[in-house]
Amino acid sequence: MPKLELGPIGLLPPSAAAQGIFQPEKGSNMQLVEGEHVPEDQALETLAHELLTRRNPTMHPGPMILWGWNEEAKHKAKLTLDIVAEVPGMNIIPMPDYRPIYPKIDPDAVINPCHPNLTIQHNKEGVCVFVGVHCHFANITLKMIRANTDCYTMAWCQYDGHEDALLAIRDVGSDKLNKIKEAIIKAKKDGVEPWALTAQGKEELEEIRGRKEKLRAPAKEDTTLFMADLETGLDENAE
Q1: Which segments of 132-196 are extended strands (E)?
Q2: Residue 194 burial (CB < 10 Å; 0-12/13-18/19+)?
Q3: Residue 183: its H or E element
């Protein structure tokens, strides 16, 4: 039985660290899967299988790669898009800022930074990935998701990783992102059927496309411009 269980756990689940779950040591070639230390190749195999087979896989990139603040960030963003392209039907919902967005947030366009479980529930995400999210915020967010949803969370971190994710990959740089991509390609070659290509997946993705199309703003050429002459108001100084 895994040490870290899929949610929903409840209002205040214990943190993974409180359960005695910690990240593998740097350089050990081990990664964290459901609270257990496993060899990296095994972790990447699990990663690929879960991303391909679970419902509505979604990438949630954070500010560290969204804003392109240096060349490395831009390169990681490009590699992240390459990975998304390898997962049929994978969506991208960014977390560009951690400040509350009031009075309303569009859960199809951005993940709610203060209540991420609401965005995940709205989009019926069976698996999600956090990449480029600052560590202090990722820890809180992953715990909220595990508390209130059954979403399989992944954290791809350039530092020590996140024990509150169901699957955490540490020391993620360009090389590690390329290994993730290759693991997904290999899984498809080995016969893993992506959720998006199943009958259920195709039906749900078609429904999502239809819903988003209704919400889409009309093209500029299709809008009706206000062309009437404005009435002249009363002028108190007029004779």
Answers
A1: 152-156, 167-169
A2: buried
A3: helix 174-189
Give residue 12's pLDDT. Answer: 80
The separation between the first and the last C-alpha atoms of the chain, rounded to the nearest angstrom, is: 89
Q: What is the mean pLDDT of residues 23-51?
A: 96
Q: Alpha-carbon distance 142 to 167, whole Å?
A: 11
Q: What is the pLDDT of residue 43?
A: 98
Q: Taking a C-beta distance cutoff of 8 angstroms, is the pair 149, 7 a contact?
A: yes
Task: Determine how many CB atoms are found less than 10 A away from the CB of residue 177.
Answer: 20
| Spacing of C-alpha 176 from chain mean position | 18
Listed in sequence order, the DSSP H helices in 54-173 are 63-66, 71-86, 116-122, 135-148
CATH 2.60.40.1080 fits 32-204, yes or no: no
Contacts 24+ apart (CB under 8 A), 212-218: 212/108, 215/108
Contact 160, 23 (CB under 8 A): yes
Query: What rounded mean pLDDT belongs to the chain?
Result: 89
Domain boundaries, the chain: 32-204
Whole-structure pTM over 0.90, yes or no? no
- Condensed to tens digits (0 to 9), the pLDDT of residues 69-102 reads 899 999 999 999 999 999 999 999 999 988 887 7
Residue 228's pLDDT band (cuts 50, 70, 90): low
Q: Which residues contact 135 (CB under 8 A, 6 or more apart)?
A: 157, 159, 160, 162
Query: Which parts of the chain are beta strand (E)?
Result: 30-33, 36-39, 58-61, 91-92, 127-131, 152-156, 167-169
Q: CA 85: distance to chain centroid? A: 14
